[in-house]
Amino acid sequence: MMKPIICLATIMIVMICSCKKAHYEWENYQYTAVPTVKIDTTKSALPTFQNAKVVFFNLNDPNLANEQFAFELNWEGFGREEVSSIEVYASFNKAEASVPAYPLVISYPGNLYPNIAQFPLPSIVGAGDILHETVTSFPKSYSFTAAQLAAITHVNLANVAINDYFLFKFILNLKDGRRIVTFFNNIADEARGEPGDCRTGARFKRA
After folding, report:
1. Which of 1, 25, 134, 140 has its CB surrounded by the most CB atoms within 10 Å?
2. Selection from 85, 58, 55 nearest residue 70 by Cα
3. What is the pTM (predicted TM-score) of this model?
4. How many Cβ atoms from other residues are within 10 Å of residue 101's Cβ?
């Protein structure tokens, strides 16, 4: 009786293996590192939240030009990958058609993350993004005034409107030679508590 059972099991294994005809791209996955950002919430002109990765400039402030945006850039390789450098890109963007609510709405339960991504997705460096510098030593601290960001992105602060924003994006160069240029929603969405911070920015509000 044992012999027929063994034969039947062998036939079933062969049939199962022969049924797989499709090959999926995700089966060739590779590990990567991700950029991480820690914003200085104390320098935001209006209240913000660390996990939102956004600070705010107040258009009603006569000292708008000197308001500050500061953050620390680093990376995480999860013990598998290492970063040789990060390219830092800056841009100025007009307000999107639908903007996140302010004051920030924090999701429940947990009170850990904003209820929506704070900038458009996915996060891709485009023609309008300006290479600010390439960083090779980490962590790297940045501090900019609104006037400095306007100069970097060739913008006149007098023409800025509510919900316009400055945005920093990052491209990773790994030590194995790979260049990570695009971050989709499963990495970039501030509302999901993802492991990487592929962008951070400062948005203009009135208060």
Report:
1. 140
2. 55
3. 0.86
4. 9
